[in-house]
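Hey,
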Amino acid sequence: MSDAPRFRRAAPPDARPSGGDAGTVRLNKRLADMGLCSRREADEWIERGWVKVNGEVAPMGTKVGPQDRVTVDRRADESQAQRVTILLHKPVGYVSGQAEDGYEPAVVLVQGRNHWRDDASRTRFAPSQLRGLAPAGRLDIDSTGLLVLTQDGRVARHLIGEDSDVEKEYLVRVAFGDVAVDVQRAFPPAQLARLRHGLSLDGKPLLPARVDWQNPEQLRFILKEGKKRQIRRMCEAVGLKVTGLKRVRIGGVVLGHLPVGQWRYLGPGERF
């Protein structure tokens, strides 16, 4: 049987290349720019013979121009559909990525016994889901809350790509000098305004943030960027000490009632 009916997704002929020799761009970048996959996933598709350029199976390293027609085998869809995205309520004491300084990575918690019993997803846990599972964003060792781990490069790119503008929401308990109760009353409004806009880190100005008092001892931050230990460093810059930090939302996905140390699958109707 011919494999022609399995191929689809023609790259638009007016797609603009973004670099390369003579106006060309690497095929894996073209596929990623179309929003179909990550570059790494594109390389897997090319290696498996699932990508054609102008009707011919493309070898690794192929470059394409704006006039080239790119099609992808439907088997790539099937492969992509098997990739999982997991939402973990990370406890304090675990690092987001690779193990460091004797601390375990949060991914070690993704096992059958920690799967939230109230997960509405019908997906069954399998060890193969751990292959290539990586954090899409950081949450430092002293912080808790929502951590996204995914096998899907499209999700990772959406959350941590250079052009990502997905909101992240945090609840942050603070102290101001010796004041740990009714901090809101003691903290100068002008410094709150600086938290919202006016601070710089590593010599670069921060994007505007939404910062408000959730209660007299706790601030709510909504950011669209995620520099290393950003909230803690922002608070230090205005004389606040963070005593607790919890991420409760990423885009349209909330932590909700997911217990600490447990995880669930991203549902088919959920979007970041």
